[in-house]
Amino acid sequence: MEENNASSTITNLPDDCLIDIFARLDHTDLDEISTISGRLYELAEVSRSRSKVGSLKARRLLIAQINREEIVFEMSFAGQYYQLKLTDPDSGLFEKLPDNESALYYALVGYLPREIIEMNIQTMFVSLFDRATVLLRRFDFEELKICSIWIDIHFLSFFHQFLSTRTVASFNLRYAEFKYDLRDQFISVLLAANFESIDLQLEHNYLVNEEFMKDYANSVILPALFVSIQCHDRPFRPSSAFLKNLSKFGTLSYSNLLIGAEMLLPALIVRLRQRRKGAWRFLVTRDIDQAEIDAALEADLEFNELHAERRRSIRIANTPSMVKFRTHVQFITMPMLQFSAHFD
C-alpha cells in the first residue's frame, strides 16, 4: 500500500519538480524510474542529460544479426569490448567477450535490475530492443555500425529512439535488408541524425538516389559519404542540377556514381576553396582536356602536371591548399573512367 502511495505521490508532482529530483540520481536509478510509465520515461531522459553523472563516452556500437532470432550488440568502451546479452533474462545484459576481463566494466556499467530485464512487452523483438535501449542510453558513441540486419518496424523504432537522444559522428551500414515501404522512414531517421560520415555497403542500390545525396550534402558541413555497390548495377547518373550539391561533399566515394565531365571542374574548384582535406572517387563520362582546365582556371589558381604521380593539380596561389586529381580506366561490366581527387 505504501509503495502505491509513493508511486501516486511521484506521478502527481509537476514535471519541473520531477526533473530536478531525477537529475540528482545515477543511471541505474533512472533506468528503474523510466519503466514506471511513459511520462516518467520521458522525464527520466530529460533528467539524464542534466544528471551530474553525465554520459559515458564509448567508441563504437556494432549491431549485427546472427540468425533469425539472435541479434548481437557489441560495444567498444574504455579500451575493452563488451557484448549485449539478450537471450537469458537470469543474467546481466552485458556479457564479456573472451580475453577482455576488466573490473572497470563492472564498476561503471554493472548489471541492470531483474525487473527491467523482464519487462512485459508483447513480442520478443520489441522486448529485445527495449532492453537494449534501457542500457545503451547511458552511453555516447562515436560510431554506429549495423551489419546484416533485417530492418523491420521494431528495429526502425529502436533506431529512431537511439539516435534521437544522442549525437553519433559516423554511421556504417553493411548489407541490411528491409521492406521497401520502410525505405523513406529509414532515410528520414538517417538524415535527421546529422552524421558527419555515412558509409554504406549494399548488395544493390536501393537506398541512395539524387534526393538522398542532395539532402545529406545540405545536412552537415562537408559531409563524408561512402557508397559501395556489390552487384554491378547500372551506373547512377544525377541530373545537372546536382552540380551545386556535389561541391558540398568533403569526401565522396561512390563506386556506382557517374558524373558528367562538364559538371566536374566547376564543382572541383568550389570544393578546393573550402580549404579542407577530403577525397572524391566516382565514375566520370570522359576525361577532362587541357583546354577545359585552362578555361576554368581563375586568376588565383595555379595548374601543374605531376608526371611522377600521373596526376594533375590545381593550387590556390600562395597557399598550401590544393587538389590533385586524375582519371583512369576501371573495368566493371565494361570499361569505365574513374575520377579520383585528393584535397589538401
UniProtKB/TrEMBL annotation:
F-box domain span: 7-53
Pfam families attached to this UniProt entry: F-box
PROSITE patterns named in the record: FBOX
Top-level taxon: Eukaryota
SUPFAM superfamilies: F-box domain
Protein name as it appears in the record: F-box domain-containing protein
Species of origin: Pristionchus mayeri
Source organism phylogeny: Eukaryota, Metazoa, Ecdysozoa, Nematoda, Chromadorea
